[in-house]
Amino acid sequence: MKKLSYILSGLLLFTTIGIFSSCGDNENYWGLHNLTDEEIAEMDRQQRIKDSLRNVIDAGLILTYDAEITISANSYDGVDVPIDCDAIAQFFGITTDQLLTGSLAGEDNGIDIIGFAIEGSTHADNMTMSNTGAPWGHWWDAKGDVINWGDGAMAFAEFNAETGAFYVGQFPGRMVEGENITFIEALKYQDKRVAIVITAKPHERGEVTAQVVATNHLTLETEQDNNYTAVPVPGFDAAATLSALGVASFDEVAWVAVNADGSYAQEYSADAPGFWYDKLGFSGSWGDDASVYSHFDAESQAILIGQMPNQMEAGSTVTVSFGALANNKIVMNEITVNITAKGDVAGEIVATNNLTLTCSPNNDYVTAAVPGFDAAATLSALGATNWSEVKWTTPTEDGYAQDYNADAPGFWYGQDGKLGAWGDDASVFAHFDAATETIGIGQMPEKMPAGSTVTIEFDAAANGKLVQNIITVNVVAYEDPETAPAGNPESIEKDITLTKVYDNEWGATDDFDVKEDLRQAFKMTTYQIYSAIKSGELKMWIDEVGKPADDAGNPAYTGEAPGYWLDMEGQAASWGSGNELVYVFLGCSETELYFYAANHPELFPAEGGSMKVKYVIECNGVTATYNITFNITPAA
Predict the structure, then answer these.
(1) Which 3 state secondary structure label does DSSP give 490?
(2) Residue 79: CA count within 13 A, CB half-sphere
(3) Which end of the chain has a smaller Cβ tally under 10 Å, C or N?
(4) In 171-264, which ranges are continuous DSSP H helix?
(5) What percent of the chain has pLDDT over 90?
(6) What is the pLDDT of residue 38?
(7) How confident is the model over 136-157, as pLDDT tens digits?
(8) How far apart are CA 13 and CA 451, in angstroms?
(9) Which residues pair with 173 in a beta bridge?
């Protein structure tokens, strides 16, 4: 008789496995036990039942699809997988429009369709509708089980109700060619279930073997720059490039750079489509070894080149390759970038404008437009036709400044009105906004109280000419235009949603106005609430009053007060912890109260995600509670 041996190590096993009472050949229940053939057969039968359950998908309609994904080391790229929504709607006995305009689109149309997932290893239901940025969609591990973004995550699927397709993407650097991942997204309506089985099939990006059909030798002479300023490369012929490639538009074109081994880099490392280059001109990455970057701007149909700050001195030269690829053809642009010394912005003073800005104290870096600045007259006096020809400058001890140290083009000024830097000795900063053709002045928080005055000079230069703008900034006490609402303070609770497209440049959501909510709850004017925020009288907590608190019992804000950096569970995360994926802040000014939020540009996944946080705002003896959902959708 075939026997298996194992050790029984406790009374619990004895009391729960009744077959031992009939084993006459072994009365010692604490020692070695030999299973009979019958026992082994029963164990095999039970295992087969478990295995069969794992292999059964509980659904009346099963749809299967493949997602061919090009492996990426740096991006979350994937592919759209169109789903047969008509078949699903017909199976449910509803219209396709009813299917796609309800919960799958994050809306309520009265049709209660539930999205969920089916675990790959057990085929058990996971009733989470989403842990991504879409109303329906999930992150998956290598076994096809639902997992949160982070360690172990391999692929994600996000359903787009507008297109009726899943976008199936990857966690950068984890997929391996030949190691497919099968996962199951599912829907339930009444007693009917649908399973969408998707197999993500990763494959390596094929080596580019296209023929170079034309080579353009271009030269860019550009001044040394420390502000990532991108300038167009002269001589690039967009129409000739399209003709040589045999395509009608640049939508059909991919761009490549040349690696040190002569192969072609295809994954963009700069603003797409574009690449960073090392100091030898080969495809590289942002950092101390970088020289310049390339980018193709489809709107202007120009190749742009920008510099790595503090890495390209006057006299530096680097030649980079930036090729347009289509139809297995390449038009290669060999671009020699010559860095020249910064031109002297000093010139003949052709006009002087004495301007005055009167404003109230502001601690939020908000700019106020300087009245009286005449943009058209400035361009005319400089002999310039547009603002790209104009440099902005301010006097220094030995000339004129050229390296902006505020929002470019702009400068910080000290308490004496001379060129300064951000910090305790700063007073204001100046910035020119080309879109609105205005000079804006912002204040250093807490450094310009009512009664402060500072005079600065913010000049425009072009063609050897200079227009002086001498600006006196007078900060006066704020006059509250509002009266507080009548009645007693009353607590409120509201649900709000903040939505934005993922970006890697700290872009925030549109402002969500809560001014009237808070005015009515606290029975205070907007300015009174603003003042309470700045003094710390207004406190904002997470989940409940008193959480999280510092040693003094005040809110332990982890971001700009009042606000927090948050993890995906909606809990406070400290900067630098690696968990600070989003921030949600209560913005304010003398006249505005609003929520806004953003994703961390490096830590948050580019395919988007969703998180929830409960903020409890405490002021004037009552609370205003906001249940906030923050959705980040993938970049287009």
Answers:
(1) coil
(2) 17
(3) C
(4) 238-245
(5) 72
(6) 80
(7) 999 999 999 999 998 899 999 9
(8) 83
(9) none
